[in-house]
Amino acid sequence: MDRGIPIFKNGVPGWAIKIILFSLILPTLVLFFLPFANINAAAGYYGSEPADIQFAVALFYAGYIAFYSLERRFFNFLAAKEYFIIFTMLELLTTLVCYLTNDLYILFPIRFFQGMLFSSTVNLSLSLMFTRLHSERAREISFSVFFGMLICILPFTNLVTADLIDSYNFNLVYKGALFSYLPCLCLIMLCMNNVRLNARFHLYKLDWQSFVFWSIMLTLLGYISIYGQEYYWLDDARIYYSVAAMIVSTLIYIVRQRGLKRPYLHLGIFRFRNFKFAAFLIFVLYICRFAVNITNSFFTGVLKLDPIHVGYINSCNLGGLIVGIIISGAMILQKKNIRFIWFPGFILLLAFHVIMFFLFATEANENNFYAPLFMQGIGVGMIMVPTIVYAISAVPVAIGPSATSICSTMGYVGFCVSAAIINFCELYEKSRHYNAFQDHLTKVDRFALHTLATRGTELLSKGLSLKQAGKGANKQLVGAVNQQIQIRFAMDYYEMMSMMLVATLLLIALFPYLNRTAVYLRSRRLVPA
User: Fold this and answer.
1) Contact 368, 313 (CB under 8 A)
2) I need a labelling partner for 199 at 20 to 30 A (CA). Which of 155, 214, 342, 421 fits?
């Protein structure tokens, strides 16, 4: 990409260009994990289950990853201004549909299409944003900014939308996104020149077949992971045939890629040992990253915090992410040993899970959770970008885009596996602890009788009748048991995550090839995703 190309008109300052591009990216970023901002409110608005809301996020994620390799053809075909206008108009249209509908069968395909548009808009925006930077640093900074923004989406969305969702209907956020696109679109039309960043490459022989098979594989993976436990896995025909279809699509896709002169994704990247290890670390990182949802469930289900206060608490996590990204970006530019970046990051993640294990209780001061969430943010921020840079550095420059796509895919797989593990463990662990409590809480148990009598007396003193007080005491006891079950499940899950992180740290310490790859990007391509 030539820095001499007059992409923006003369007289437009650099700071204004960056603000315009960031403002254009922001609504699209918020749409990514928007359903997770308040999953119960979203489920209530669409008349669905929480699993359906999880699947809506997975579809957006799948669309983003599936379209990545095909998006470069459109990037080379259209001029930058045309590209922005077309895809922004499509984003406006899809956001308008999301605002007007509450039908899941309309929402699901729209979410997948929004993921495709997310890939296009973000790639071009960040490509333009860093054309003014020094070429040696622009690649690392562009990757740090994009993937840093990606991991900051969830706490940022919770923070900026909590008040709106709590006060109005869930779809009001889509209305806000609609209006936020319009000023940036007008500024783009006024400030940009109609120039090309690359030579025009016509859209003949588009490998849409690989895109279709890749999309089927990713979508079915999300469907199986999210709905598998609810439908009893392979005992249900829907999951059984979904697994069969995914396996068939995978085999066809692999055979097709081996026979193509220009494959959709170069499968040869899996011959590089360092790349495989980095992809594994991304997988582990995303499993740990989305375990923070259990902490949010603890805040709302046990401590009874409203979504607004949960968003405020998670702002500490957002601050930690930003700090971690800055630290890791500086260490990448200084070409530090990768072990010096990974070890502190994973140790902070381990410390977060261990501390939270001891903080889970029926009563707690919310101030105690600020430091652990800040530590978790720093850990994730320090690991994410260096790992992706390390993975891309481990393969030849020609197949670097495939390495980036696979890294994003491993993040998606980690997201799906995390959802599957949480759903499975939640059912199994809660059932196990419920049965354990049931063995003790009987009508002849002294502790249960004493608790019922105490709670009944308290309700009687507040003016309830004897019958109402008895029913109220039983209900309070059941609620207390459910809280204990949720706490025990969270402790068991975080204990399992801690053991996985210890094993990961041992692998990092013992892996003999870590220092054979320089942690810098050799490709001059500035597209970060």
Assistant:
1) no
2) 214
Direct distance between the N- and C-terminal alpha carbons of the chain, in angstroms, rounded to an integer: 16
Q: Which helix H or strand E contains 353, and what residues bound it?
A: helix 338-359
Structural tokens at position 413: 């797989």
Our separate counts of H helices and E strands in the chain read 17, 0
pLDDT at 301 over 60: yes
DSSP of 26-75, one letter per residue? HHHHHHHSGGGGGHHHHHHHHT--HHHHHHHHHHHHHHHHHHHHHHHHHH
Q: How far is CA 312 from the centre of its chain?
A: 19
Residues 275, 415: Cα–Cα separation, whole Å: 20
The Cα–Cα gap between 131 and 359 comes to 47
| Of 265 and 283, more confident | 283
- For every residue of 306-337, which 3-state class applies, written as one string? CHHHHHHHHHHHHHHHHHHHHHHHHHHHCCCC
Among 186, 194, 154, 465, CA closest to 310: 154
Q: Which of 412, 523, 518 is nearest to 72 (CA)?
A: 523
Q: Is 529 helix (H, G, I), strand (E, B) or coil?
A: coil
Element (H, E) at 158: helix 135-167
Task: For the beta carbon of residue 514, count every other beta carbon within 10 angstroms.
Answer: 19
Query: Amino acid identity of 421?
Result: I
CA 126 to chain centre: 19
> How many angstroms from the chain centroid is the CA of residue 72?
23
Closest CA to 70 of 123, 7, 143: 123
Question: What pLDDT, in 10s, does the model give residues 349-381?
Answer: 999 999 999 988 877 788 888 999 999 999 998
- As given in the structure block, the two tokens for residue 435 are 């049965």
Q: How far is CA 431 from CA 362, 440, 462, 488, in A?
A: 19, 15, 34, 11
Residue 258 and residue 453 in contact, taking contact as beta carbons nearer than 8 Å: no
Q: Which of 260, 273, 35 is nearest to 165 (CA)?
A: 35
Q: Which two tokens stand for residue 496?
A: 């399992």
Per DSSP, the three-state class of 213 is: helix
Among residues 28, 37, 257, the alpha carbon closest in space to that of 123 is found at: 28
